[in-house]
Amino acid sequence: MGNTAMGKTARLLPLVLTAAALVPLPHHPTTPEPPAQDTSYQEIPLDGPSVQARTEPYGMVGIIWPAGVQGVTAKVRVERDGRWTGWQPLRVEDEHGPDPKDPEGTQPSAPEGIERGGTEPLWVGDATGVQASAVTTAGTTIAGAKMVLIRPGVLSSDAEESAQVETTSGRSPYPMPLMVSRKRWGADERLRAHNGADCVRPKYSSTVLAAFVHHTADRNDYTRTQVPAMVRAMYTYHVRSRGWCDLGYNFLVDRFGRVFEGRYGGAQLPVLGAHTASYNANSFGVALIGNFEQTAPPAAMLESTARVLAWKLDANYRSPQATIVLGGSRLHTVSGHRDTKATACPGTQLYTKLGWLRQRVNALMGGSFATPVYRYARKLGFRNIGQPFWGEHATRTGWATYFATRDVFYSVATGPHSTQGAFRTRYRQLGAGSARLGLPITDTYQVRGGARQKFQRGWLVWDRGDRQVQVVYGRTS
């Protein structure tokens, strides 16, 4: 893993792409999912140092205030089964969220039109009363502060262990782990339009350089069946309360070792998240659900986190033991949130496990990159083809990696070859790796009057006369 471009170090300027520039890529269903049953969202003004209210049942609570307010101390206690809990501090975390240069939820069409500051949300299960406090360091109240109560409702699939869907498998690179999709945890895709039409389409960075490990600073005693509702509530809080486009994290892992797809846009792609402000571009965020300041994360949780990291880093040819330059700082490829800012995240007990995670990820990846696609890309030269955008993944009949300027394909029958320029665009339009044309068996080559590229069951042909890439089906021998 010592290659300069893809191993020990990498320096890359952030590049944000829109989905329209990337078609065709993995299909993302846009049919809105029905909301969970018995859902609600409520904001209650905090017009004093402490406000208490009896409420309809809710499952998650947080406190928000206008953006720009600093030095906030927040706490909450809730009523469950007719009894009040003790006061619990809420973590005030302004370093989660979008990059300052790419704000979310600030479009003119957004209902509130501004992003808001706030605490991390707290899962309370089933509460019927709340008392909350949010004051400045001087002890004064905060104009415009509100407590947010979210009832995520119940879906029939919440209790289904089969909510994990089968994913890509294969010998190399490290396979995508089992994952609970957005559809299966009940994401209401209509919510992404809440803060403006610009939020509906996902945004992408140019590659994956690093991973940031977080904790949600939530409770550690949740049940298996509560987790989908927790994720739905977190999604609602990030969008409606904080003003973001979507759930901030790219992936979440629960204490039972289950992995959940986070932000919309395709788990295999470098989706621009809102997890580590100023460092979101060219990275992805994995949040462990719970609070790991005093409590160590369970072994199953750490192992599943390692598998997510191994899959994403191996597909993009990144060493988990390397350092990279990101956001102007030199960081480990696998870093904790606190490596970028003065924050407690991901909690001391999880942060001390990062060394173990790097070693475990390296072992899962086999310690080196040796796939035919990677070797061919090195032969072409990473300076020439750019960074991987859609990391190495299985096609219908082989493997592929989409780099900045070329797409490289491999199968045992064809060997490794690439498409580029107008040929790449046309091949993508056909559905790269499609059964009808097959995989490339040559790279593009020049002929009199134009250029050609052979595939298993035909050609792509470009002539100077019409300047269009045409498809010709038939035997290539």
Automatic annotation (TrEMBL):
The N-acetylmuramoyl-L-alanine amidase domain, residue ranges: 195-347
Q: Does the keyword Kinase apply?
A: no
Stretches of Basic and acidic residues bias are at: 91-104
Q: Which portions of the sequence form the region Disordered?
A: 87-121
GO MF, one term, reads:
N-acetylmuramoyl-L-alanine amidase activity
| Keyword vocabulary terms for this entry | Signal
What biological-process terms (Gene Ontology) are attached? peptidoglycan catabolic process
Q: What is the protein name given in its UniProt record?
A: LGFP repeat-containing protein
Source species: Kribbella shirazensis
